[in-house]
Amino acid sequence: ALISSLPQFPDTRISLRLFHNVSNASEIRSKVAQLPYAIIDARSICSLEQVYSAIYRALVESKYGKLKTKSLHSECLYSLSATSNIGEAYKNFGIKDDSQMLLVIQIVDKDQQDLQLQGDEVPLNDENLSQNCDMTFIRKIYKLNEFHSTSTIEISRAVVNCIQLRGL
Amino acid sequence: MSEEIVSRVSNYLTPQVPFKAIAQGAEAVVFTTNVHPYLPAKDSNNKTYVIKYRPPKRYRHPSIDRSLTKHRTLSESRLLAKLFLIPGLKVPQLIACDAYNGYIWIEFLGEDLPNDAGFSNLKNFLWMFAPSDPYDPIVKETLIKVGEQIGLLHWNDYCHGDLTSSNIVLVREGPESWQPYLIDFGLGSTSNMVEDKGVDLYVLERAIVSTHSLFADTYKEWLMHGFCQVYKNNGAEGEKKLKEVLNRFQEVRMRGRKRSMIG
Ligand SMILES: Nc1ncnc2c1ncn2[C@@H]1O[C@H](COP(=O)(O)O)[C@@H](O)[C@H]1O
């Protein structure tokens, strides 16, 4: 797990875990609304920058009373989205019955109940994200089909732009 | 800078984000910091980030002030995001935008020039070459590239709004090679009006004539060479639009002259 906090939010602990070969996604999905996590299908994630950029945005929205969803966890998922449609955000980034790679975001003050997830935890880094993500899907959901560059770094930067400006 | 602004910013950023003021404009204050707002420290070692803050103006009604700040912060951020998508155009990366509070985080560009020549904006760069070789091939190459950047901006129907030689930052790409980036889109806009484009070109021309008058004619020629090239690469439509922009540039220049004769 990658545990960190952001400079402007030192009291908020962020834990990020990446799982491959997940075999019980549909079971987790059925109770995801009750779980104190944001559970993201990692196909739609190409970089750490993308994830942290969304978490930063969610923390800012929360601190200044601008949350658009029920909790900080759901706001993290919503913040990844390029559109203001919450249903679409869940469809594009949320866990699906056939999800095999999951990114689990937990924002806590202390450890909470364990996640009964069956799969292999792998190191969370840019390689593991960019090599396994679905670039075509990412281009589609961020409306970057026309974007000239194929470099993950450049695409990630364009994605950050969308995340920072969504709905504003 | 007013103590009130500094204390406001330091409250917002928290002690975890040390910052330094580098510029104060009419509308925004610019700071730098070595702390990335959200990337883990090991991924952002030794880098510098720009924080641009629009403080509240006490003379405005609070709710109008909030909505203006939000609007302007967003408009600059949106512009950076859109320009980033244009092939060949070089602008700094937007890192974060908190429109409610008026903060934008941007990638810091440029470096200090050798021999105490100052920060690597176009103005200082030209000063650096003036005493030895104002027509150095590097100067020529760089000014053509500056012209290309402005050409790309205008061809795609965007305008800068404050195109001075301080708002063009040179980023070193090799020992003898510099890539110009356009910065500060606080007054920028989407615009297909030739008037706005003509004014951009006129503002830059004035900046160069006033600081480098002896060499200005050659510098302008190189700039316009790069600028025109972008339009000419776009066929008959490019040639047509180029003519319109150049005609308007000439008109703006004439107006400017009249005004300075009277005033
Ligand atoms: N991205 C940047 N990289 C380097 N310097 C910058 C950047 N943005 C602003 N500055 C500096 O801050 C000054 C004022 O910024 P601005 O208000 O954006 O014009 C500029 O003239 C630059 O010297």
Main pleated-sheet profile of chain A? 5 strands, antiparallel
Spatial arrangement of strands, main beta sheet of chain B: 1-2-3-5-4
Which H/E pattern describes the elements of chain A? EEHEHHHEEHHH
Helix content of chain B: 40-55%
Give me the number of helical elements of chain B: 7
Task: Give the N-to-C terminal Cα separation of chain B.
Answer: 32 Å
Described by strand count, sense and barrel closure, the largest sheet of chain B is: 5 strands, antiparallel
**In CATH, what is the class of the largest domain in chain B?**
Mainly Alpha
CATH superfamily of chain A, called what? CGI121/TPRKB
- The topology string of helices and strands of chain B comes to HEEEHEEHHEEEEHHH
Structure description:
Chain A has 168 residues and is of the alpha+beta class. Chain A has a single domain (2-165), classed as 2-Layer Sandwich (PF0523-like), CATH 3.30.2380. Chain A has helices at 25-30, 48-63, 72-80, 86-93, 126-130, 135-141, 152-165; strands spanning 2-6, 9-20, 38-41, 102-108, 120-122. In chain A, strands 1, 2, 3, 4 and 5 form a five-stranded antiparallel beta sheet that branches. In chain A, a hairpin with a 2-residue loop joins β1 (2-6) and β2 (9-20). Chain A is globular and about 40 Å long. Chain A starts with a strand and ends with a helix. The model of chain A has no long low-confidence stretch (mean pLDDT 91). Chain B is an alpha+beta fold. Chain B has two domains: 3-107, Phosphorylase Kinase, domain 1; 122-262, Transferase(Phosphotransferase) domain 1 (Transferase(Phosphotransferase), domain 1). Chain B is built from seven helices and nine strands. Chain B has helices at 3-13, 62-84, 122-129, 137-155, 194-211, 216-232, 235-262, and strands at 20-24, 29-33, 49-53, 94-98, 103-107, 158-159, 168-174, 177-182, 189-190. Chain B has a five-stranded antiparallel beta sheet with strand order 1-2-3-5-4, covered by helices on one side. A two-stranded antiparallel ribbon of chain B has the order 6-9. In chain B, β4 and β5 form a beta hairpin. Chain B starts with a helix and ends with a helix. The model of chain B has no long low-confidence stretch (mean pLDDT 93). The A-B interface holds A 2, 4, 6-8, 10, 48-49, 52-53, 55-57, 60, 64, 66, 144, 146-149, 157-158, 160-162, 164-165, 168 and B 12-14, 16-17, 35-40, 43, 70, 74, 77-78, 80-81, 84-85, 87, 93-101. The complex binds adenosine monophosphate (AMP). The site of adenosine monophosphate has 18 residues of chain B, from β1 and β3. Chain B: It catalyses: L-threonyl-[protein] + ATP = O-phospho-L-threonyl-[protein] + ADP + H(+); L-seryl-[protein] + ATP = O-phospho-L-seryl-[protein] + ADP + H(+). Chain B: Belongs to the protein kinase superfamily. BUD32 family. Chain B: Its EC number is 2.7.11.1.
